């Protein structure tokens, strides 16, 4: 494979910016164009629901310094949205009238917050959280609000609830799940997060559905639940997950996977010649799991962006990293590695759930499928090795043995 003359990267988030930087780091001397619809230069998303929303920072963590792109001869167009990919002609069109031929194309278009498909779900004044501008607006709203209602008890909903309580708002969280994060960590570990938030004053309405967003042209008044109860609020945040932004890829005729992402092989290649996808949109065939997985976390975008650079330049290396994410809520911090199915995997707890100082493991067929350390920071390398190596261990070993000795 000859070196490409021009690489076009659509999406200037962490995945796209990491790909651009890694291509240069590998000695590529051709053209790089980075197209991003956000008006800001590339930044990382985790600080938005943490430091920015809490008021501890006014800026996110920028992926690179502002001067980086010019110094590395990366053409960066902010506030420009790609509108069409012409696979046959090998070019990308944008909403500013630009036509961008490519030899290699990387799609890193990320995700958009899901809306709630109920009456009133499109009322003006509803908040979502995805961008820096979203976070700054929501922070101001939290600071002025007496009552905040959050629909969704996932990671964003939990972190936003912690931020709203830090701003002294009364907070109610609604979700049909039995405990927060039940689909990710199961009811036992999810109960730890529920108790954490309850102890910090959050009101939960779990096991209940939102039937309607109430309000009118002047804004949102609150929600009506399926049982008829009405909850009023000054701020309503919809935090029910994110959908991969695959409209561009779909319109171009690229294959979509069952989970809605862009189907890519182990090396992050689509079926179209010289077209790759990374980050939130990539439904990646992961050799470790023997199936496609799509991961929407920070580390995945960063690592896939860096990894795809080598394949853009002629290599054919599979992406093998395990999923990883982290969260901070009040005085709780944790890291999660791997991919568990809490409905079927065996949960093993090392430490004290009540004290919120523990490590949780999920075993599948005697192998470590995932591990999560909560306010325990000494065993990160060992946990990574156990998950990456799919270590064969017993529950008793995980509870009592030196973890490094099991890797």
UniProtKB/TrEMBL annotation:
A single cellular component GO annotation: cytoplasm
**A Pfam family that the UniProt record links to this protein:** Pyr_redox_2
List, for all copies, the residue spans of the domain called FAD/NAD(P)-binding.
6-305
Q: Which GO terms describe its molecular function?
A: oxidoreductase activity, acting on NAD(P)H
Q: Write down the superkingdom of origin.
A: Bacteria
InterPro entries assigned to the protein according to its UniProt record, in alphabetical order: FAD-oxidoreductase/Apoptosis, FAD/NAD-bd_sf, FAD/NAD-binding_dom, FAD/NAD-linked_Rdtase_dimer_sf, Reductase_C
Record domain Reductase C-terminal: where: 324-399
In the UniProt record, does the keyword Flavoprotein occur?
A: yes
Q: Which UniProt keywords apply?
A: FAD, Flavoprotein, Oxidoreductase
Q: Carries keyword Membrane?
A: no
Q: What are the required cofactors?
A: FAD
Q: Could you tell me what this protein is called? A: Reductase C-terminal
Report the source organism: Amycolatopsis tolypomycina
């Amino acid at each position: 494979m000859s070196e490409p003359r021009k690489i076009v990267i659509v999406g200037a988030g962490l995945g796209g910016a990491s790909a651009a930087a890694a291509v240069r780091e590998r000695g590529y001397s051709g053209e790089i164009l980075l197209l991003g619809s956000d008006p800001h230069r590339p930044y990382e998303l985790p600080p938005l629901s943490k430091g920015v929303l809490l008021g501890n920072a006014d800026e996110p963590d920028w992926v690179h310094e502002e001067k980086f792109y010019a110094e590395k001869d990366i053409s960066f167009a902010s506030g420009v949205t790609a509108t069409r990919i012409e696979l046959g002609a090998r070019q990308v069109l944008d909403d500013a009238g630009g036509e961008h031929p490519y030899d290699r194309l990387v799609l890193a278009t990320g995700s958009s917050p899901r809306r709630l498909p109920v009456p009133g779900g499109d009322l003006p004044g509803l908040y979502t959280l995805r961008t820096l501008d979203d976070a700054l607006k929501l922070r101001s709203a939290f600071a002025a609000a007496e009552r905040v209602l959050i629909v969704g008890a996932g990671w964003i909903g939990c972190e936003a609830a912690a931020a709203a309580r830090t701003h002294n708002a009364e907070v109610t969280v609604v979700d049909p799940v039995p405990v927060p994060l039940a689909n990710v960590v199961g009811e036992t570990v999810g109960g730890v997060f529920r108790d954490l938030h309850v102890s910090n004053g959050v009101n939960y309405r779990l096991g209940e559905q939102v039937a309607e967003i109430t309000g009118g042209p002047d804004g949102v008044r609150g929600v009506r639940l399926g049982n008829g109860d009405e909850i009023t609020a000054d701020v309503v945040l919809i935090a029910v997950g994110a959908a991969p932004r695959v409209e561009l890829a779909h319109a171009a005729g690229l294959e979509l996977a069952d989970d809605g992402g862009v189907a890519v092989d182990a090396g992050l290649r689509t079926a179209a010649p010289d077209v790759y996808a990374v980050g939130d949109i990539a439904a990646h065939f992961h050799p470790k799991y023997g199936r496609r997985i799509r991961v929407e976390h920070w580390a995945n975008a960063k690592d896939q962006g860096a990894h795809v650079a080598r394949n853009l330049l002629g290599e054919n290396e599979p992406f093998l990293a395990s999923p990883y994410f982290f969260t901070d809520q009040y005085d709780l911090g944790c890291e999660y590695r791997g991919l568990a199915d809490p409905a079927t995997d065996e949960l093993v707890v090392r430490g004290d759930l009540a004290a919120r100082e523990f490590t949780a493991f999920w075993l599948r067929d005697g192998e470590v499928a995932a591990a999560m350390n909560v306010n325990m920071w000494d065993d990160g390398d060992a946990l990574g090795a156990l998950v990456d190596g799919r270590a064969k261990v017993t529950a008793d070993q995980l509870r009592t043995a030196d973890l490094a000795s099991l890797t």
